[in-house]
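GNAT family protein structure dump, as promised
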Amino acid sequence: MELRAMAEADLPFVERLRTDPDLAGPFLWDGWRDPRRFRRRWEQDGWLGADTATLVVTADTDPIGVVSYRRITMAGVAWCWSIGISLMPEARGRGIGARAQRTLVEYLFVYTLAHRVQAETDVDNIAEQRALEKAGFTREGVIRGYAFLGGGYRDEVLYSVLRHEMPPGGNTFPPPGVTV
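structure tokens r here:
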């Protein structure tokens, strides 16, 4: 499993992963929306913006999913990253999600000043909760009515990891665009 920057050739994969309800799964499928939004985002910043980015998860160089991060304002001038993941069905349940999210957190702590990385997931998404815990996250609690999905508001579980809780792995990450 590796993470790499998005390439233009990845757009059809990402479009399929995020617009096919069977591939997105019950926790990420949010209805039919403009499929050109992926192309527009690519043209805007190559999916590597200052406040939000998406990286491709690969196995043997083949794309099997994506991880993303976005900047969230906390109190005052404080901010953190919120991360997410979407994997192809055949990549789920094999520990890839936990490894990909751990790698992303390590990358963010090496290359940004963030003190906190958090993730939110549906209260019924037990597999993702386990993956986050394996990746080193701590469950903080339930955020009631946080997400609108499937015609109703859903509760989400909030997880986080702080910089001092992530022991350095000795990784010297390359900059975005180079496989990690």
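The CA atoms of residues 63 and 110 lie 24 Å apart.
lmk if u need the other ones
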